[in-house]
Amino acid sequence: MLVRYSYDAKGRRLGRALVYTESEHGIPRQSVDAGAIRVVEALVGAGYETYIVGGAVRDLVAGRTPKDFDIVTGAVPSRIRRLFRNSRIIGRRFRIVHVSCGSQLYEVSTFRSRVGEGSVCVPGTLEEDAWRRDFSVNALYYDPLRNVVIDCVGGMVDLKRRRVRPLIPLRSIFVEDPVRMLRALKCSVMCESSIPFSVRRSIRRSVSLLGGCSPSRLTDEFVKILFSGRSAALVRALCGYQLLLYLQPSVHYFMRDVPCFESAFFASLRVLDQAFVSGRVKRVGQALTYVLRDFVGLVFGHADAPDEVYIRVYRACRSFVLPMNPPRVELEYAVRSCLGGRGFAARAACTPSGRLCARENGVRCVFSSP
């Protein structure tokens, strides 16, 4: 194990970080996404300190294959944008850059300073950025070029001890960003870790804050849950804290009020997890099929006229997944898959006028999209 020291402008030592080599962290370089490595190489080649960070490193250390690779660098967003042709800057309070590399999308952010914590984000150093992360196990930095993991906050120890430890004071961690409640439970389930009592109590007191999050953020988080390979366990944990009421309220109420829906829904999620692990689930629409199929079974009626089935089921499913707002093409895919599983071979397509079409037994029905 190596040690990395940081110093201020006057040469005074500010802190230290532990540097884990390959024999200690156990990450084989070939398990790291090639596109993420290319992004890191480009930024390092331009003279900027750059690492893979967050849940991807946590999963790699734990021996799992991450779905997403987030990258952090010393370059500011405008400079990142100039380095990558297929990129765009998003965000207001803290701007990040989405870099497209092949079919993959990588989120590249700038090191954050501890100055102006909470409402203001100022560029900083790696050490400062580590203390702006939500939990210690998400504050590990992986250098794929040297194949080392840098740990400024004791995240490797927490990962081995299976402990979810927040780095931000509890009085503000969930107020600043309620989505961190979902991430705390995800860390707990994915790492099979325990959540301290004080954090559990803070989550229960802050549950209602999740209702103020934007639909786009809730959509992103729910999609990550579906593609985690542990969606059944994660949704079960969300139910335990009443978080599902704000993330997927229709699912919450159906499980409460409709007999047998809860058991069927969790059975579908377990099948989804198996399909994801085996590589059979690649797109959002496929994952949504498992979320919707039990609901579609309740609203689908064989006695309905063929030209009415698709539009009614589609609109019902659109309402069912709120506040989640998946791309329309993905929701259409899921609805068609659910109906196909019940013997209704609906095929939706967009007409030049922007309306949806469905075909069943040679009957063509055209209707305005919701």
From TrEMBL:
Residue ranges of coiled coil: none
Sorted alphabetically, the keyword list is: Nucleotide-binding, Nucleotidyltransferase, RNA-binding, Transferase
| A GO biological-process term | RNA processing
Q: What is its EC number?
A: 2.7.7.19
SUPFAM superfamilies cross-referenced by the UniProt entry: Nucleotidyltransferase, Poly A polymerase C-terminal region-like
Q: Which residue intervals define the domain tRNA nucleotidyltransferase/poly(A) polymerase RNA and SrmB- binding in the entry?
A: 198-254
Q: Which CDD domains match?
A: NT_ClassII-CCAase
Q: Keyword check for Protein biosynthesis, yes or no.
A: no
**MF annotations from Gene Ontology:** nucleotide binding; poly(A) RNA polymerase activity; RNA binding
For this entry, the protein name equals: tRNA polynucleotide adenylyltransferase
